Amino acid sequence: MILPIIAYGDPVLRVKAKEIDENYPKLDMLLENMFETMYNAYGVGLAAPQIGLPIRLFLVDTSPFAEDEELSPEEKQQLKDFKGVFINAKILAEEGDEWAFNEGCLSIPNVREDVFRKPTVTIQYQDEHFESHTRTFEGLLARVIQHEYDHIDGILFTDKISSFKKRLIKGKLTNISKGKISVDYKMRFPDAKKRR
User: What is the average pLDDT across 120-125?
Assistant: First the structure.
């Protein structure tokens, strides 16, 4: 089932999400719905707060990035083959010299900005079977993971841009929160709740 993606301005996107355990109700169905929702919106990552759930869960599928001509064959293969579920994730280290990449977000449609992040991330997490992992990721894959991880800490990519850039996009962000935007996937806008 395709779920509505929560738009910028909704308080759930600012909550530090809570951990879950293997007794979380209907987790399999939730993951299936989240993947379907993400693919429907042509995303490469989706965090639970983006569908209104303040829990420490996000998923990633970087296969669309494998088409990028500028990547090395190794990077393409890594991105093509990666699909994962991250539950109760905790970043242990972010390393290397920060690099800029033009990021977007399904909760902030039609806004893209250069964001600086470190190229290597080491993260501890549980998969969909609640098996624990500690892994290190690099490059674009690390960036997608860092972006989604920020969501479970109540951080948006727009928090990481300069105050000048924030001023430039303020009107767009206001329009998104009011639902004054055209998107080709299902969204829920914070002001829409007040109108009901």
Answer: 98
**Token pair listed for 183:** 């998107």
Select from 4, 5, 8, 3 the least CA-distant residue to 175. Answer: 8
Which residues are catalytic, by number?
148
Residue at 144: amino acid letter: V
136 Cβ neighbours under 8 A, 6+ residues apart: 120, 121, 122, 123
Residue 188 lies in a domain: no
Give the model confidence (pLDDT) of 94-118 as tens digits: 999 999 999 999 999 999 999 999 9
189 falls within a domain: no
Structural domain range at position 18: 5-179
For residues 15-32, average pLDDT: 97
Whether 160 maps to a domain, the answer reads yes
- The SS3 assignment for 137 reads strand
Largest CA distance in the chain: 51
Q: Tokens at residue 55, please? A: 């829990």
Q: Output the pTM of the full model.
A: 0.94
The CATH number of residue 57's host domain is: 3.90.45.10
- pLDDT of 60 above 70: yes
User: Domain tally for the chain?
Assistant: 1
What distances in angstroms separate CA 170 from CA 53, 83, 120, one per listed residue?
26, 34, 31
Pull the structure tokens for residue 56.
């420490």
* CA–CA distance, 144 with 25 (Å, rounded to integer): 27
